[in-house]
């Protein structure tokens, strides 16, 4: 008899997305809360609705979902915003993450997690400092009053933060944890090599697919080109043992940046009178797309990413064990509190000390509050912890702690923001940057 498992799982996922969105709109709460709860309830109590052994095919699910999850968020970053807030995004995505992982790893000297080596601490904090773009967007899209500049910082951080955390985990933490030793200089150089090569490949793909966009004149074809670009950039980068996530993010942002330049040119009559070398290199005069078609691409990419995240949530539901949560409750709360404090301190740069550096503008206390509690964890943390070899003695600890932190961050941070915007802040949207 023919198996209808793929059809059933698709119905389940789409049905859960539709139901969660509809109920969230009525209850005025973030839909990610309902997605997580619904995924767990369906997986545990309605097994007929999930007829595929998702944990068994987890690696395949990861490869399928990663490009979709990151593509949508990358498309929402505008070139003008990157130019304006480039240093701030770099601080959030690279400097703050590196300092946070270092601060977390220093807990080794206090013996917070018994039995773990220093390399294991680096891995554990790299996993649990990675924010989740889909969860963050799901929560923040529910609230009015968040300034555009803060949204840019959050989007930029959620992308770059993940890329930095992945490089720190795979090229420093994991080798150190599994071998017990590491050459700090060599590991740092390897991480920098991966960072540079990934960005280089990404820019190359970005230009190639930007030129391909000039050959297409319909929104569906342009959407498919972006999807192909995301998957191809990820696969090629992973094949050459560099960061697939950083490569695909760079590729999409690069393509989008050149498209933004084209759109700006259409509104700038002076640019039409002369052509610079760079404009000729971009086939100046041949438009890549239109703002109307890009709006369609934004929305569709967001929905694809949403569906991909739900697939990861179903795997997360399989990893949830109330008994294990209780057994490791001290470790879970310790990790949650430590990562929250580290994030609050790293975000304080924007609240109190930003004026000391011209390129990084302060956002005030409210901006600091939003940035701190927008650090929800999610799909990437689950993906990374799954990548730890089964032979690692403390893998269960890593899985349970990470799963617990993901749940606490989404519900804890999300509820904090929801309560603030629902009961305490009624003002209309205003610019949060202070000058």
TrEMBL record:
Gene3D superfamilies: 6.10.140.1330
Cation/H+ exchanger transmembrane domain ranges (all copies): 17-251
Localisation per UniProt entry: Cell membrane
Membrane association type: Multi-pass membrane protein
Primary residence: membrane
InterPro entries: Cation/H_exchanger_CPA1, Cation/H_exchanger_TM
Alphabetical UniProt keywords: Cell membrane, Ion transport, Membrane, Sodium, Sodium transport, Transmembrane, Transmembrane helix, Transport
Residue intervals passing through the bilayer: 6-24, 31-50, 56-77, 89-112, 161-179, 191-209, 303-320, 332-353, 365-388, 400-421
One Pfam family from the record: Na_H_Exchanger
Protein name stated in the entry: Cation:proton antiporter
């Amino acid at each position: 008899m023919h198996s209808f498992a793929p059809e059933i799982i698709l119905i389940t996922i789409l049905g859960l997305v539709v139901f969660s969105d509809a109920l969230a709109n009525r209850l005025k709460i973030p839909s990610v809360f309902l997605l997580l709860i619904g995924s767990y309830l369906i997986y545990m109590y309605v097994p007929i609705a999930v007829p595929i052994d998702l944990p068994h095919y987890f690696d395949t699910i990861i490869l399928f979902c990663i490009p979709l999850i990151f593509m949508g968020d990358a498309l929402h970053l505008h070139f003008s915003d990157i130019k304006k807030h480039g240093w701030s995004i770099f601080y959030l995505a690279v400097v703050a993450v590196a300092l946070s992982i270092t601060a977390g790893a220093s807990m080794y000297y206090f013996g917070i997690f018994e039995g773990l080596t220093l390399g294991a601490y680096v891995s554990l904090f790299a996993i649990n400092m990675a924010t989740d773009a889909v969860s963050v967007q799901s929560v923040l899209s529910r609230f009015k009053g968040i300034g555009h500049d803060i949204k840019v910082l959050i989007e930029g951080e959620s992308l770059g933060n993940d890329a930095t955390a992945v490089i720190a985990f795979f090229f420093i933490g994991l080798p150190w944890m599994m071998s017990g030793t590491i050459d700090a200089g060599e590991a740092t150089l390897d991480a920098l090599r991966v960072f540079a090569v990934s960005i280089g490949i990404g820019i190359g793909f970005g230009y190639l697919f930007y030129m391909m966009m000039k050959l297409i004149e319909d929104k569906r074809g342009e959407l498919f080109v972006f999807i192909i670009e995301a998957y191809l950039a990820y696969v090629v980068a992973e094949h050459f043992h560099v960061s697939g996530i950083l490569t695909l993010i760079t590729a999409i942002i690069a393509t989008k940046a050149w498209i933004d330049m084209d759109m700006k040119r259409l509104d700038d009559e002076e640019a039409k009178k002369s052509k610079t070398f760079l404009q000729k290199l971009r086939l100046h005069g041949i438009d890549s797309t239109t703002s109307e078609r890009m709006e369609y691409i934004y929305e569709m990419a967001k929905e694809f990413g949403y569906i991909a995240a739900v697939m990861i949530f179903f795997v997360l539901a399989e990893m949830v064990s109330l008994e294990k949560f209780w057994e490791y409750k001290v470790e879970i709360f310790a990790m949650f509190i430590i990562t929250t404090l580290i994030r609050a301190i790293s975000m304080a740069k924007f609240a109190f000390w930003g004026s000391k550096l011209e390129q990084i503008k302060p956002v005030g206390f409210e901006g600091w509050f939003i940035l701190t509690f927008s650090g929800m964890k999610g799909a990437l943390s689950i993906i990374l912890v799954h990548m730890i070899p089964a032979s690692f003695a403390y893998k269960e600890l890593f899985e349970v702690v990470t799963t617990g932190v993901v749940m606490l961050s989404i519900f804890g941070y999300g509820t904090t923001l929801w309560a603030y915007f629902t009961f305490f802040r009624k003002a209309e949207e205003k610019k949060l940057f202070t000058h």
